[in-house]
Prior knowledge:
Elements: H1 19-22, H2 34-42, E1 49-57, E2 60-70, E3 78-81, H3 88-101, E4 106-110, H4 126-134, E5 146-151, E6 158-160, H5 164-167, H6 169-176, H7 180-195, H8 203-213, H9 230-245, E7 273-277, H10 285-302, E8 314-318, H11 322-325, H12 330-342, E9 348-354, H13 362-365, E10 370-373, H14 381-392, H15 401-407, E11 412-416, E12 428-432, H16 444-452, H17 457-460, H18 469-489, H19 492-516, H20 522-525
Parallel strand pairs: 3-9, 3-10, 4-7, 4-8, 5-6, 5-7, 8-9
Antiparallel strand pairs: 1-2, 1-12, 10-11, 11-12
Helix pairs in contact: 6-7, 6-10, 7-9, 8-9, 14-15
InterPro entries: HerA_C (IPR033186), P-loop_NTPase (IPR027417), T4SS_component (IPR051162)
Domain Helicase HerA-like C-terminal: 64-550
Region (Disordered): 1-27, 484-522
Amino acid sequence: MTQNEQTVPEAAPVAAPSAEALAGAEPRAGELSEAAAAITRAYAFEGARIHLGALVEGEEPVAAAPVHLSLPMLNRHGLIAGATGTGKTKTLQVIAEQVAAAGTPVLVADMKGDLSGIAVPGGASDKLVARAAARGQDWVPRAGTTEFYTLGGQGTGVPIRTTVSDFGPVLLSKVLELNDTQESSLGLIFHYADSHGLGLLDLKDLRALIQFLTSDEGKGELKGIGGISAATAGVILRSLTAFEASGADVFFGEPAFDTQHLLRRASDGTGIISCLELPGVATRPQLFSTFMMWLLADLYQDLPEVGDADKPELVFFFDEAHLLFHGASKAFLEQVVQTVRLIRSKGVGIFFITQTPKDVPGDVLAQLGNRIQHALRAYTPDDAKALKATASTFPRSEYDLVEMIPALGTGEAIVTVMSEDGAPTPVAVTAIRAPESSMDPAPAEQMTRIVQASPLMAEYGEVVDRESAYEILAKRDAEAAGAAAEEAAAPAQAEQPAERDAPARRSSRSSAKDDKGLFDNPAVKSFLRSAGTVVGREITRSLFGTRRRRR
Length: 551
């Protein structure tokens, strides 16, 4: 069954306002209709909460009927979906800025560059203030404490890099678009490096190790665990070459980013908003999505179990989420499902932002307790099918969602969230509140000032390029060429005794080489300089194949 043919599980029914109540006469001034009162009770959580907006009755929002998200229940994950231009990004911004204000760090992936305004106070206008008031919002311009990041320093932000060893074979196989056989072979290569304490820092290290393990000298090293064929190694090497040519090699290396920085809070107790700026990698969407999963997997393996807390440790907003699942292998999807399911107990909430729930595999969709659905359009039979599938993911209600979802205006959404007792709330047609930070991208000059003032720039701003296999092998070749030139220039009479003694010297050298074994190979020696690994201690890996660091 293909992703587009998957069956989306139907949600369990919950109590909802009756059709008569929804269509009833307008209440007297100061009173709520039966439907609005029911929604108000359902979304009036006792703990900390995020204000989404106000219930829509008829065609107008009811300011006295607020719709909330429960902050402690954000670790039940969520989905923000809708067609392009319907307000998904602004809804993300509304939630993210309030989550940070409540003291929880936030990570947002800014694929198009239009979320950077979260670092800038919004601009007031009479229209904006009136619109906010109609949604029960006392609008005040404010900005979140924001840290900008980029992948490999491509753009404005603190560079995020990781080593090949930390990234691991599973995610790297997805980036390189390897098939199952090639992925298995790459796993053997990593296993060999891990078990021999050979740190892989950058792509040159990996290339050198592959070449060694397929050479006459090294190909016997993997025989005991199956080995790799020359053809498979050739495919992997060609994929690495194309990967490097795309400029992706800058994402691998040192200093490797510590994902614990994403859990910081500002001095006033608010959560820091980590905004990963990604316009520079828009032409490599698979790399972007895979790196985001590396961040998530790395956090998962390092965070302690916290269970249900008053607020999450981190809320992760995964924009353009369909890129993660496009072309993914069955094994990769199983690992995504497992991570989403288990990371809840680590206090991490994940929101997927995409156009339709059909972009998300059913097993993942089943883990998303908070749903915000903006308008979808049904211009084709496939669109109509997707619309019906989307409507089926919501709790049953008196609303005709198949008719209502296409009719939503910009900034309106169908909402159901996880209540504090673990049950979905009744469906509420909601007018989403306005962001209090800027809805326009931050000026480039201001972003540059924020980045330059970051204390992380001193740690991650400059690339560390330590000696690697590439340089060592080049040096060895240069030394061999120099020695050959010197020998050719030596006097003839000096060559004669040298020739007489040559067999003994060759025998001595051969014996010494046999004694030294594998670690006499310059390509292998270069890996031993890797920080964070110890020769003879096997690296352990997470369910995503990422390296478990010992802190």
